[in-house]
Here is the input.
Amino acid sequence: MKDLSVNLLLEFPEEHRVERVLWIDPGMRGLYTIDIRDANALPEFYQAEEIEKMRDAGEWRVGSSSD
Here is the structure.
């Protein structure tokens, strides 16, 4: 998770969703994201272990600002 940063876009291709990282816990225990394509989205918290497992499983990848 150390390679993630605030404002980074995470693309979830199978769900056609792109989330922006809003905040990362200084203790690296988790982070908050928000779906940038949903006008009614609320921030979502991911525990560090969860987001790492999701990346390892290929559920998300780093997106680009043009997404």
About this structure: The longest strand covers residues 17-24. The chain has one domain: 9-62. The beta strands are 9-12, 17-24, 30-35, 44-47, 61-62.
